[in-house]
Structures are given as C-alpha cells and as structure tokens.
Amino acid sequence: MTNINDIARLAGVSVSTVSRVLNNYKYVAKEKRESVLKVIEEMNYTPNKNAIDLIRGETRTIGVILPYNNNPAFDQILNGVLNKALENDYSITVLPSNYSKAKEVEYLQKLKSKLYDGIIITSRANDWETIIPYSDYGTIVSCEYTQHNEIGCSYMDRYSSYLEAFQLLKSKGHYAVAFTTARLESNSTKQMIDAYNEIFGELRPEYHISGCHCLEDGYKAAEQFLHLIERPTAIYANGDEVAGGIYLYAKSKQLKIPADLAIIGQENQPIGIGMGISTVDHQLTKIGEQACSLVIKKSKEKVKIPYRIVERESV
C-alpha cells in the first residue's frame, strides 16, 4: 500500500513537502507541487485522514453532546451548530447522551484521544468538576452559563426570561398560573420554580408537571391541570409543542383561548406560530451558532444571547 514516504521518494521531494501539498499549503514551489500531484494520480493514492490530522494537529471535527434527538429545542441548537460548521468547513459528530453521566465522560475521553478539536455540551448530566479536567485536551463549550474560566459558553439568561414571562401573565390578571418542565432535576427547572416563587409566591405542587417533551405530554398535562378543583387560568409550557398539546386539549373542552385559559410556550417553533401561541424565544439557533464559533476560535469567552418574548393571541 502506497504511503506518504513512497510519494516523497517517487516525486523526489521531502516528506514534509508532500504533507504541505496534501494540506494545500500555499508556499510550495510550483514544480514540486506538480511533481507530487502527478505521483499521487499515477499511484491512485488516497491520503489517510488520521495521518493528515496528526500532521496538522487538528481534525476539523467537533463533537456535540446532545441529550435527546427529535427534540425541537435541541434540534434548534444543533441546526445553529451545523450552519456555522458548514460555513467554516468543519464536520460535526452528534453524541447522544440521554443524560447518562458515563456516556458523557466516554465522549469527553475522545478529546484526550484527539478525535475532536472540541466538544459542545448542549445540556449536561455531570458536574463541572468532572468535566473541566478534559478541557486540557481540547476546547469545551457549554450552551448554559458557567463561571468556570476553563469553559467557554454561549448562553441566554433563562431566569430573567422566566421572570418576564410570569410577570406578563400576572399583568394580564393571572394569579393561578401553572407550568410544565422537562426534567425535575435540571438547573432550568430550578430557575423556573425560583422565578415563579418570586412573582406569585410559593408554588402549589399541583401547578407544576415535569417530564413534558412533546405535544402528547402537553395534552396530558392540560388534562391534569384543568381537572383541578382550582384550575389554573394560565399555563407556561416549556416548549411550543407542549403548548400546542395544552391548546388542543383546552379547545377539545370548548375553552376559549385566552379568555378561559392563557398559554405561553417556548422557542418560537412552527407549531406555536401556526396556532398563535405566545412564546419565549431563547434564540437557540443563535446559541448553537455562537457555540460552534467559540470552538473554532478555541475561545473560552462567555457570550450572552438575548431572549425575546413574542406575544400572540394566546395571552
């Protein structure tokens, strides 16, 4: 099997010259470049990508740790990452974790093996003390805020967005407000509960349902909320698909939106736009784009992406 040393010998140049040609470096004499390319063509040589990566010290590949696939919010982040990677001729490897701590560490180990130039963590199961040591082997960027200097982040102020959304409902005369979340143990759920308590006082347990990810979950949550003796007059859903399910259940019971029930979703997704559901847009595509840029630049910056609240007929 032909290798780089064979190419160098047959072309009458050094191995370093062949590697420069393979990496398309500008500063190679024209006659030497032509000689190398001629031998490559004659020998039908295909460069070994791993060998080239070792020569140039980078893979131009970024790993993206993603808890779930087919999740609208994480799909938006991934879409942003892919957009920026394509612009910069980088490849993306999706690393599904399902919030497994062991799986996350397995992926981070690949930084040590130089399989990726960096890793983007869209959402994590491990604590930062477990993750930070791997930043010695490549760039790690988080899609949530971290104060640790070793980790860059592209993030939005979720707590402020929750405060503003709850305040909007309160300003419309709603005090019996319920909400849904995805994971009970997540930092975003803790922030939402804290924001709720600040605006409305102590949360009634029956006004919070976790484990909501899709339209069907929203439908079931609405059924549970709206059968309470003191049913809520407004619901803040942790995604526009969940909000869509809430909307459909309310309509099936002939409730008027927003006169009988106000609804706010999250992330400005097509289903919410189509149904006229108000939303808190955390601009997740921009979060993904910026996270990818930070990895490409090998940066440890903290970049805050602004959120926006889009009011529609549902409030």
UniProtKB/TrEMBL annotation:
One of its GO terms (molecular function) is DNA-binding transcription factor activity. Keywords: DNA-binding, Transcription, Transcription regulation. InterPro entries: HTH_LacI, Lambda_DNA-bd_dom_sf, Peripla_BP/Lac1_sug-bd_dom, Peripla_BP_I. The keyword Transport does not apply. PROSITE patterns: HTH_LACI_1, HTH_LACI_2. SUPFAM superfamilies: lambda repressor-like DNA-binding domains, Periplasmic binding protein-like I. Gene3D superfamilies: 3.40.50.2300, lambda repressor-like DNA-binding domains. The keyword ATP-binding does not apply. Residues 2-56 form the HTH lacI-type domain. PANTHER family: CATABOLITE CONTROL PROTEIN B, LACI-RELATED TRANSCRIPTIONAL REPRESSOR. This is LacI family transcriptional regulator. It comes from Heyndrickxia oleronia.
